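As a warm-up, study this chain.
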Amino acid sequence: MSEATRRAATLNIDMDLLRTFQTVAELNGVTRAAERLGRSQPAISLQLQRLEGLLGTALFHRNRQGLALTEAGQLLHGYAERILGLNDEAIIRLVARKTVGTVRVGLPNDYAVSVLPESLGRFAEAHLDASLTVGCALSTELLAGLDAGAYDLVIAMTAEPPTRPAIRVWREALVWVGKPGTARDPQEPVPLIVYPEGCIYRERMVRALNGVGRAWRMIYTSPSLSSLMAAAKSGLGLTVLSRRTVPPELAQLAPGGELPALENVWVGLYRGTQSLSPAAERLADFILKSYEPEAAL
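Now compare it with the structure written out below.
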């Protein structure tokens, strides 16, 4: 066994250093990583220096876009995903033995269908003594239900930055969607497929079109996401979704021409006023680790 091999066998990578490295690599910079991890930029830089010193090699180099992985960094990146994944799985399964109770969760319809089913399923699988009750509604109704004590946790959208306390708030991009390949007459009003009054998507559509003086008409209204998606897939009209919830059967339509750009929405993970059970606390952590917001505030 060579001296280098013997030395390598005695080294251990601190999990905290590895998670910092992985976060910087994913976010392409120290500043955003510091914001997500709740640490100062100098602290993040120091951790990277410690890791590079431990491994005896540079993991990043700087380019116009920020920090880029070196060849060694790319190699470590692949291992880091597997190591951290196993670490988190072990922690979840061990803690899950003490996590019992029912968690009442409120979600917007498209999040419940497109974004979080896998995360909720993994939580339920890992926490066998905990059960989930999931309710779907418009965000205004979800927040009202949270205030009334009907939910323990709620993910809800707001048109403006929220004033109520939240576990985390982030921004989501909205996009126009419709049946792929459908041609629209620019002289005709834009046919809209919408949720009932009170939906932020609906408000954003109307505001954007009115802002550019584009005529529109609400051709189909339903409180059911599956009904709205069926109408859009048939080519009946256009609707708006969060970018990450667009199903593969629908096409994202770029702004320009008849379709103006859409304002972002604010999304928050909120807790009720009552104390959360250990199961609810674990689910909140699980959601934030499994589902990565686009742009946290």
